[in-house]
Amino acid sequence: MLELQNISKQFDQKVVLENIDLKINSGEIVSLLGPSGSGKTTLLNIILGLTRIDQGKVIFNDEDLSHVDMKNRGFNIVFQDYALFPHLNAYENIVYGLRNKKDTASVEEVREYIEFLELKPHLKKRIGELSGGQKQRVALARTLVTKPKLLLLDEPLSALDGVIKESIKERIKSIAKEFGLTTIIVTHDPEEALTLSDKILIINQGNISQFGTPFEIINQPKNNFVKEFILRQLQIKRQNIYNLFGEKYA
Amino acid sequence: MRNAKPEMRAIFIIILLLFFTFLIAPLLVLFFRSFVSDDGGAGFSNYMEALSNNTLISAIGNSIKVSGATAIITTTLAFALAYAVNFTRIYQPLKSVVKVGILIPMLIPTITYGFAIMYTFGNQGLLTKLFGRNLFEIYGFNGLLIGYVIYTLPAAFLLIHNSFKYIDKKFIIVSKLMGDRTLRSFLNTVVRPLSGALGGAFVLSFILSFTDFGIPASVGGTYDVVATQLYQAMLGSIPDFSQGAVIAVLMLFPAVAGVILLNYLEKFNFHYDKFSETELTPSKFRDSFFGAASVIVLLAMLSVFAVMFITPFVTAFPYDLSFTWQHITSIFQSNDLVSVYRNSLIVAVLTAVLGTIITYGSALLNARTPIKGKQTVDIFSMITNTVPGMVLGLSYLLLFNNSSLKGTFIIIVLCNIMHYFTTPYLMAKNALTKMNPGWETSGELLGDNWIKTVYRVILPNSISTVLEMFSYYFINAMVTISGVIFLVSAQTTVVASKINELQHFAKFNEIFVLSVLIFLTNLLVRAVCDALQKRTAIYKK
């Protein structure tokens, strides 16, 4: 279980996060949802250990990690632009971390990850030769091979188009289920957040606007921001789809 | 955002120490020395003495005159060549020839230019013979002008050529469609967007000519310029350190003003974010005019260097033109000259290896770490860009004259590294800034420490830039004379400074053979680096 207690962060006098307090259960997918500049990426970096906190605590399985180095927390992230190493091929990227800690994953396990992510035909390819979705899966594999205790994903779908988006969405869900992996996702897209996660943390101007399941957010929006920013968008989308297909598909 | 690691701090401290010892301290010593008179008093007496010295005043005037004339000619020619390469539809291979050929002077020491000019335009010169009469008096203004133009043309061309890439050719079409006449269209769509680069080329050519020592050392004659005055003050019959320091400070002024002006001109450059390939409109007149112009400029330049390759292979130029290996073999039999060439190689290799390491480390700290105070490296880079080689060499002489560094290879190498720091530093910084900023974090999460990520990821992805930096340092260390003229000893003489000695004994065959050796060595290093770069490029794809 991941627990954030009263987390605050400022950059040069400017408050970016204020009194963030929440608990995430093991195996849950949680989305951090908010407009750009809301502080959601900062929160992700704080959990990862990349950004220091001014105030508060990060506790994982009853252990206080607030002042533990990023490297020693045992978490891992897939960046929005994947940060794959272009001088190595897909396979070399996937096993990069094994050079440092050989016993993290056995050859057999690596093979399983590769098969699970359907990367076998692409292993010899250079990063430049991969499509967006393939890059995303290579980055996921590279991260999973290190067996993180917590998986962080920064805007995992924003660089992908249409159909690929839906398939990666399913993939992320099945990873969380298959490996019982607590997963935290940053996104600015309400539809993505609500269809992908068990719980959603809506952040606005550094504060928690609402934290709840998709059902709670749709049916009991806590404030105007959730209504205006989150629900309004979904309603417009729904209206557009209705107009295309007709009311009978409601 | 992240915290600085101890290994980053360690590298930073080493770099700071290097720059304080071998850049800041010598320059401060030079500056203070210029205010201390020979009898130990402090004040402006040295400056008063310098300003009442008529030879020096006229030398400054001469330097300004000839550098100004050079800058105008070079900028015009460089523009014509860059225009031919970028904005005409001349025969494609010709463009490649121009792009490569124009860079040839960079591979040869400037002091050689002077002798090449003598052998081309002098009383017995190649062109003099061809035309049957002396074209003009070469010692003095004319010779300097030709030498400086050849010397500054490659740098000015590269600067303008790069800026051409940022001009959107669509504007030419728009301008035509709007009904502009040729001249108006040319001014608005080519000259105006290039004005920053043209100004930059002018300033750059001026500074380079003003501070070069090799060309006036060979073809200057009795026409005094600042560089020869500085040389005479320090290494003449009566060395005068105070006067030397004053002249060096005076030489620094136009350089500082020039760099400030260059930074200011940068604002006039256009930066288009997006531009697409646009076909050029055909024009017979434009293409034939610029095609002919570039061929003429290139041939004129190469004809000056032709003697360098002819003289050593004939018995006695220009009287007996029968082919012989004798000059070549006698040089390789002379221990003296072979050891001088070996010295040059040692200096160039050490400069290239150490220089690349120091420069890459500096750029790495500046571009990819959160270390506090990393902007100081940018300031060092600006200073090294400003200080002329002769001034830096002289300041080393003043500071290290009584230390054990005097007369060693390492002092020459350090002077070269500082002197040529800016360009490779900017190459590395540019390449490193463009790389994905998430690599270090990814590496760390995958179990690397910082050094390991640098070695496993950052370095392999910038290997092409590293090669470029290496060959830049190597070639410049091979050809520089102004930087090292005050620092070489009998044991550490390099080819360029040896040539300066040889001229007093009229040993021109030796001069040309040594120059050809430098040229071929540089060509080889350049070719090897290019080949390696190509390989890494294929490997990347």
SSE order and pairing:
The complex is a heterodimer of chains A (250) and B (541).
Chain A: E1 2-11, E2 14-24, E3 29-33, H1 40-48, E4 55-60, E5 63-64, H2 70-73, E6 75-78, H3 90-94, H4 107-116, H5 132-144, E7 150-154, H6 162-179, E8 182-187, H7 190-196, E9 199-204, E10 207-212, H8 214-219, H9 224-245
Chain B: H1 6-33, H2 45-51, H3 54-87, H4 92-101, H5 110-121, H6 126-131, H7 141-164, H8 170-177, H9 182-211, H10 214-219, H11 226-235, H12 241-265, H13 284-310, E1 314-316, E2 320-323, H14 326-333, H15 335-368, H16 375-386, H17 389-400, H18 409-419, H19 422-434, H20 439-445, H21 450-461, H22 463-479, H23 495-502, H24 508-540
Antiparallel strand pairs in B: 1-2
Task: Report what the structure shows.
With 250 residues, chain A is an alpha/beta fold. Chain A has one domain: Rossmann fold (3-Layer(aba) Sandwich), CATH 3.40.50.300. Helices cover 38% and strands 24% of the residues of chain A. In chain A, the strands form two sheets. In chain A, strands 6-7-8-3-9-10 form a six-stranded mixed sheet, sandwiched between helices. A four-stranded antiparallel sheet of chain A has the order 2-1-4-5, with helices on one face. In chain A, strand 9 and strand 10 form a beta hairpin. With 541 residues, chain B is an all-alpha fold. Chain B folds into two domains: 225 residues, MetI-like (MetI-like fold); 264 residues, MetI-like fold (Orthogonal Bundle). Chain B is built from 24 helices and two strands. In chain B, a hairpin with a 3-residue loop joins strand 1 and strand 2. Chain B is globular and about 70 Å long. The mean pLDDT of chain B is 89. Chains A and B meet through strand 6 of A and helix 20 and helix 21 of B.
